[in-house]
Amino acid sequence: MSSNDTTGAPPASADVQSVSAERDAAPQFVLPLVAHIEKTDPPARTDALETAARAVLTILADERSLGEGEWAGVMRDWQDARIRKVVRRARGAEWRKASALPGITVTGKAAEVRVFPPVPLDGWPKELAKLQVSGTDLDDPQDPGAPDPGIPVLWTSPALDMSAGKAMAQAGHGAQLAWWDLADADRAAWRAAGFPLAVRTATPEQWRRLTASGLPVVRDAGFTEIAPGSETVIADHPALGSRPAGQH
């Protein structure tokens, strides 16, 4: 699984097409996500992607991340710079050690993802730093089917072949861009419902329509796997609707 970086901007500026020099010059942090993946019974790929996206939303909305909460300062620092996320895997004793660190574990159908407060790029806790970034991929034994009506959908590009870890981080980016764009009442409603969402791969026709809709688009910085500027995920939240392209 691989580290990921998006050029999305913080809530005060939703321009996802450029990254200011100030943001690049700011201290760089990363949001660690650890997926529980045992050799004998790994989760389905879509389940892992959806759980990772919900984990990002959960920490964004957590009281410890807001106001004067214990994670609020580092969450602000992280969002003031590039929005980096790294997905690593753990099993057995590794997972138990990671679970003992401050963070939040989010569960899906079978997937488990623990999200931690942001850490400096070169300041990972030793329990997380030694976890593998690559070496395990995931697939869907069965077609996940159409998403339930009325729930947010994070559409992944049909033109890109991403590892499970890359796709998990990109889904998290998409969820975060949707969160930033929502009105407070819509955020509260989504949180109260437990952050229902689906992750699906768009058809080429759907992707063309979505890219012209004005919905939040994740553009990858290109440090791993795919070319800089690649559009990876579009966040289709019912409360956002379709807007003229370029407006957020």
TrEMBL record:
Listed name of the protein: peptidyl-tRNA hydrolase
Entry keyword annotation includes Hydrolase: yes
Membrane-spanning intervals of the chain: none
GO molecular function (one): hydrolase activity
Reactions catalysed: an N-acyl-L-alpha-aminoacyl-tRNA + H2O = an N-acyl-L-amino acid + a tRNA + H(+)
Alphabetized InterPro entries for the sequence: Pep_tRNA_hydro_II_dom_sf (IPR023476), PTH2 (IPR002833)
Protein's organism: Streptomyces cremeus
Class of the enzyme per the UniProt entry, highest EC level: hydrolase
Source species taxonomy: Bacteria, Bacillati, Actinomycetota, Actinomycetes, Kitasatosporales
Lineage top rank: taxon: Bacteria
